[in-house]
Amino acid sequence: MPHFFEAAMLICFGASWPFAIIKTVRAKNPAGKSYLFAALVIIGYIAGCTARFMREGADGVFFLYIFDMLMVATDTALCLYYKRLNERGAAA
Does residue 22 sit within a domain? Predict the structure, then answer.
């Protein structure tokens, strides 16, 4: 039963990241985004992946951690891209 609740947590957290990615793409302005927060979330997902892999191996919940982590990394990469693009536009 704990696996079910862990998977539910990851699905709920993971469901929010596509909205953040879409918002970043639409706004094209990462103002207000915290890179420290994103880094801490990614570190947390890495820790969860590691614990899960050591305990159960590469099961479905492990891949939920990977998927969620990739979404956070995608949003962070987009924020860095738009930040650089906005800085270039302001300099021109």
Answer: no
Q: What is the pLDDT along the chain (92 residues), one digit of tens a residue?
A: 878 898 999 999 999 999 999 999 999 988 888 999 999 999 999 999 999 989 888 888 999 999 999 999 999 999 999 999 998 888 76
The label of the residue with tokens 């492990």 reads 62
**79 is in which domain, residue-wise?**
34-92
Domain assignment present for 12 = no
- Token couple for 26: 């639409």
Contact 64, 15 (CB under 8 A): no
CB 69 within 8 A of CB 46: yes
The DSSP secondary-structure symbol of 58 reads: S
Cβ neighbors of 3 (< 8 A, separation 6 or more) are: 56, 59, 61
How many distinct structural domains can be found in the chain? 1
